[in-house]
Inverse folding.
């Protein structure tokens, strides 16, 4: 999940101008949802924005493909597989249109709305305010606890709430911090750059084992900086992850598999052309830095960050005594979840830590004279635009702008059973960490931003109902011709493509920014996944030519048309 701080945007400047804040109600009768859309324009003139659904306690959902022309407005919302199209009605003073998701079109008219309330001035969350937010978050989630820590000029404080009916958490309770690990990897890179051991513009291939290669495009090589800023063109995840255990998806991804992927991968666009968050890219960066140093990632982490800062409870591999303090993990349905193991891509998300240790880290990140101060300066000095007006990407860190003249440096993380957030406001020398032991959303990011800048914490909904039980399906063998006829690309939404390909005598399917997984035949034109509760049925025209598909996952359906080669 990309961590960012919502910007204050201008209200519409003309009747047909889409930039601004818009509100409407989706649906009719007893079943309605309030929808709020925030649209902004970048300095380059590109439209972007976010969507809020207050009744579902969701905010900041990124828009894509935002187009306004000749009185019409369209955008998609990839995270929820949604699409909106509307026409401006001058008399009504609103965008009159329809919303499509996994069902047919529903009416959604958007009228001008006031901008979000400004952040409170001179905000400082009290212990009581923090405790109230934590209590509200864990109240409907049996088994979840959450620990929040604050570092500020007045000192440090930790407020913890343990799972109901169990031992209370505290500042020494350990959590998986997930993608906050990317910040540590970026600081290792920055430290090595500052000491002349590597350069940001070094080709990543320079540090691969002999005989292996990085993908290139148009004469441009992927650099170490490209990997840390997510501008490499590499996908979010490689398409050859075995995922033998979907509850621990990285555990069996080996160095050999990663190198094989790099040797054969073809970049879909030029390096540096577009920001695309990549766990593979930063996991690879950690691997390459270890090779450049003639060491291993865990040793680099200790020598350059956790050792100098006295972070004795921050590591990839826990001692038996530390493992006893690792919080029990739960998934989004509050079912017990497995801890994650990342043997090859640990630099992307393999670190465990505690609130006490993360406050040491936050204090050092805010102090230019600390052992990591110079590396922090280098990391924040190297930024790229992301195409999202809410934030820029530095080395590892994301830099948000909640209001004019203010910067929040942030990263969050998520694994199968943990959520985390770390947010700093350097100008005020304040930092906040929030750590939770479940995958239920909302999780830690809104609480961290509430404590740091006074942004509203999202109301906590009831725990999502259990997913539909998996359907028992029987695999059958089909002739090669039956497999070949469904190979191709299928457009679910304008920027969500499913690619079906042949591999190892069978078929694989890849959704945009998701790992490639095998699919198995249960009948002609009907296939299913074993790693997830999903099925795809291909549709044909009268001649028998495959023209589309219908994807079903956990009870939701989405139709797709087949794209021409």
């Amino acid at each position: 999940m990309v961590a960012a701080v919502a910007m204050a945007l201008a209200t519409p400047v003309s009747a047909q101008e889409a930039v601004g804040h818009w509100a409407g109600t989706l649906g009719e009768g007893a079943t309605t949802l309030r929808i709020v859309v925030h649209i902004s324009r970048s300095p380059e003139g590109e439209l972007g924005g976010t969507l809020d659904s207050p009744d579902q306690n969701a905010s900041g959902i990124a828009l894509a493909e935002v187009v306004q022309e000749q009185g019409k407005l369209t955008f998609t919302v990839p995270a929820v597989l949604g699409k909106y199209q509307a026409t401006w009605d001058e008399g009504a003073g609103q965008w009159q249109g329809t919303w499509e998701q996994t069902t047919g079109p529903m009416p959604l008219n958007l009228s001008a709305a006031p901008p979000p309330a400004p952040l409170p001035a001179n905000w400082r969350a009290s212990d009581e305010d923090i405790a109230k937010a934590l209590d509200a978050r864990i109240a409907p989630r049996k088994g979840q606890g959450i620990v929040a820590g604050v570092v500020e000029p007045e000192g440090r404080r930790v407020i913890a709430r343990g799972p109901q009916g169990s031992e209370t958490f505290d500042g020494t309770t350990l959590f998986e911090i997930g993608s906050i690990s990317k910040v540590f990897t970026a600081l290792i890179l920055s430290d090595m750059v500052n000491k002349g051991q590597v350069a940001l513009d070094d080709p990543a291939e320079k540090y691969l084992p002999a005989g292996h290669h990085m993908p290139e495009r148009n004469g441009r090589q992927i650099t170490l900086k490209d990997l840390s800023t997510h501008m490499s063109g590499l996908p979010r995840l490689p398409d050859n992850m075995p995922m033998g255990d979907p509850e621990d998806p990285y555990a069996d991804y080996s160095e050999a598999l990663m190198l094989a992927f790099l040797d054969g991968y073809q970049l879909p666009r030029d390096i540096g052309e577009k920001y695309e968050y990549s766990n593979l890219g930063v996991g690879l960066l950690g691997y390459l830095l270890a090779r450049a140093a003639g060491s291993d990632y865990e040793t680099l982490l200790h020598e350059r960050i956790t050792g100098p800062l006295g972070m004795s409870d921050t590591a990839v591999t826990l001692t038996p005594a530390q493992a006893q303090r690792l919080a029990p993990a739960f998934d989004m349905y509050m079912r017990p979840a497995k801890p994650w193991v990342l043997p090859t891509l640990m630099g992307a998300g393999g670190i465990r830590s505690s609130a006490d240790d993360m406050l040491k880290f936050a204090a050092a990140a805010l102090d230019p004279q600390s052992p990591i101060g110079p590396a922090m300066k280098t990391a924040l000095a190297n930024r790229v635009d992301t195409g999202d007006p809410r934030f820029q990407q530095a080395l590892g860190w994301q830099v948000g702008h909640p209001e004019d003249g203010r910067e929040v440096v942030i990263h969050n993380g998520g694994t199968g059973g943990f959520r985390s957030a770390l947010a700093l406001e350097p100008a005020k020398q304040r930092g906040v960490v929030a750590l939770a032991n479940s995958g239920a959303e909302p999780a830690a990011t809104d609480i961290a931003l509430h404590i740091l800048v006074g942004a509203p914490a999202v109301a906590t909904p009831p725990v999502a109902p259990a997913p539909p039980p998996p359907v028992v399906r029987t695999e059958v063998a089909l002739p090669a011709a039956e497999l070949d006829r469904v190979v191709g690309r299928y457009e679910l939404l304008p920027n969500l493509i499913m690619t079906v390909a042949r591999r190892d005598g069978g078929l694989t399917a890849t959704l945009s920014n998701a790992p490639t997984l095998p699919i198995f035949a249960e009948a002609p034109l009907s296939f299913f996944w074993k790693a997830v509760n999903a099925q795809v049925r291909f549709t044909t025209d009268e001649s028998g030519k495959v023209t589309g598909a219908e994807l079903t996952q956990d009870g939701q359906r989405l139709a797709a048309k087949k794209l021409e080669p």
